[in-house]
Amino acid sequence: MYPENFHYTKEHEWVRVDGDTATMGITDHAQKELGDIVYVDLPKTGTAVEQGKTIGSVESVKAVSDIYSPVSGEVVEINEALAAAPEKLNEDPHGEAWLVKIRLGSPEEITSLLSAAEYLSYIGE
Amino acid sequence: MSERAGEPLRQTPLNAIHRGLGAKMVDFGGWDMPVQYSGIMDEHNTVRKAAGIFDVSHMGEIEIRGPEAFALLDYLTPNAVSKLKDGQAQYSALLYEHGGFVDDILVHKVAGQHYFLCVNASNQDKDYAHIREHNTFQAEVEFASEKYALLAVQGPHAPATVQKLTDTDLAPVKYYHFVDGTVSGVPARIARTGYTGELGFELYVAGGDAARVWNAVLEAGAEFGIKPAGLGARNTLRLEAAMALYGHEITASITPFEAGLGRIVKFEKGPFLGRKALLEQHERGVRRVLTGFEMTGRGIGRDGYEIMIGGAPAGWVTSGGPSPTLGKNIGMCYVPAAHAEPGRTIQVMIRNQPVEAVTRPMPFYKRAN
Q1: Contact between A35 and B351 using a beta-carbon 8 Å cutoff
Q2: Is the pLDDT of residue B284 over 60?
Q3: Is residue A125 part of a domain?
Q4: Tally of structural domains, chain A
Q5: I need a surface site. Which of A16, B16, B119, B238 has the fewest CB within 10 A?
Q6: Do B322 and A61 touch (CB under 8 A)?
């Protein structure tokens, strides 16, 4: 369920690094906790983001949950499909429902993130 | 919630059943309650199309008896208790002298000298104290919450489901009426009331019988696709039906006229607590009033968000969220009376950004028959 080649945060985001770009999303644990996701608010392409700072939000029927950037850098692409189909975040949070791609500003930040095993232990699974 | 901080969460008699069903449990005003089982959307749609069962045993019950029961209740509530026949229920309120809400309540007339109140969970201690404080009539007032569990069976197939479990013919039981009978062989007060905008019954049973009735309803309703539903769906259902929730649409600083509940205020009945303040407000006209809205911009206006009109602060959202039935983001809000008519453009402040919405009539959803 939690790919070994992803990195994770305690705020329940995942990151996959391909060269100088990181793709990020929310974890399966996060989508389960949120329940039916009905709205996603993402930053614009070109936005400079900082590790640990809010970059958007995900809303379920009941609650609003902030999304924190797991790395610093610049948003180079956002998943436009989620605006019309936010429920994809419940269906495929680690795949089709990625949120944004960030060109890494400080690639060394990746080492501060959790491994799959560490994340699983953190969420108690 | 704060008044019980540090105390263990209170449980209904069905706590273990909810956990066994895999419900997500939350602290709801000091109660450990199921917010969802299969998911809020699924439960919501199941109640609209088939039927759902809700454990709302956290709700409070207060019984008022004796020769002075009517006089006490008629003084403490703005609605006309005299209009109630045996076996009839009435939506009403407990009000402060200044006209604000202590709580909104259901008054059931069991018999001439016996009334049964259903009150909000988080207000029950306050309500009981309020009633006792004004009981110069010396009616017998009993805090009866511990005696009752409350199961709400709601949805188009709810009547058929409950009918399978009782010998009492439920067809003649009209909306806001009730009968005392048995369900699954145990004593039950079967009330045709609800908080979803659907057909259905609310079953008051002894705490010790709750599990039996819960299981019997799920079994009887299986052929219709009944599912357990949690407080999450209860909230989206009541929002679509535009039913008030204490602490949101109605509070100690809101009056029935502001909340669009003028129908529960009967000045002609004579004296009642809050009458003078309400009469003054009624003659003067309300400054702010509850209205429905629908988001036209991208975003969800949620409870507590500020309303802006023409760039100036003008009110606040009392309840807001996605409407599963309509596929729109809806809500209720207080705005100045002059802006409350349907079709007005307003803005909801969402994360410091004004997002457009339009006022619209309530309810948002009305069942077909």
Answers
A1: no
A2: yes
A3: no
A4: 1
A5: B16
A6: yes
**ipTM for the whole complex:** 0.86
CB-CB neighbors (< 8 A) of B322 in chain A: 38-39, 61
Identity at B118, one-letter amino acid code = C
- Per the CB < 8 Å rule, is A62 touching B299? no
Task: Among A33, A39, A61, pick the best mutation site for testing chain B contact (most B Cβ within 10 A).
Answer: A61
Q: B360 and B342 in contact (C-beta within 8 Å)?
A: yes
Q: Residue A61: its chain B contacts at CB < 8 A?
A: 40-41, 232, 236, 321-322, 324
Yes or no: say if A52 and A69 are a contact pair by the CB < 8 Å rule.
Answer: yes
Place A1 in a pLDDT band, splitting at 50, 70 and 90. Answer: confident
Q: What is the mean pLDDT of residues B93-108?
A: 98
| Amino acid symbol at B278 | L
Domain residues for the domain of A42 are 7-120
Q: Can you tell me the mean pLDDT for B236-241?
A: 98
Instruction: State pLDDT tens for residues B43-54.
Output: 999 999 999 999
| CATH number of residue A66's parent domain | 2.40.50.100
Q: What pLDDT, on the 0 to 100 scale, is given for residue B7?
A: 79
Mean of the per-residue pLDDT values for chain B?
A: 96
CA of B235: how far to CAs of B78, B228, B245, in Å? 26, 14, 9
Q: Which residue has the tokens 């029961």?
A: B69
pLDDT beyond 90 at B3:
no
What is the per-residue DSSP string for B121-151? GGGHHHHHHHHHHT-TT--EEEE-GGGEEEE
pLDDT computed for residue B5 by the predictor: 59
- A83 domain residue, yes or no: yes
Whether A71 maps to a domain, the answer reads: yes
Structural domains in chain B?
Answer: 2-57+147-240 (3.30.1360.120), 287-369 (2.40.30.110)
